[in-house]
Amino acid sequence: MLRRTSCCWYHQQDWSNVSELAIQLIETARADGKTEHEISGQFMTKTRELGTSNQDLMALKSLLEPGVAIVPHLGENATHTNGNHRARAMKDAGVTRTVVATWLPPSTS
Hints:
Layout: H1 15-31, H2 36-49, H3 54-64, E1 71-73, E2 79-81, H4 84-92
Antiparallel strand pairs: 1-2
């Protein structure tokens, strides 16, 4: 059930569509052998080619740009950084899956 309100920009987005588009872009890029860095650097071009609206592009950017992506913190008291309001808007819109950023420590080799 999509529950949009006019309270803010986050609650006016079609997060179901944007989340599925983000997942599709990542899956396609990985199948093409692209790195995560290449994915975030090329998503605007790819989505423009698909005819994505400016509003959806900005919402998509908020999921795929590493600096503003949702970053999960797993464990007993799981939470996330960045995007608390965005995540709330997604939950309100009934989104069941989206993309998050995970950070891996540099290899020590």
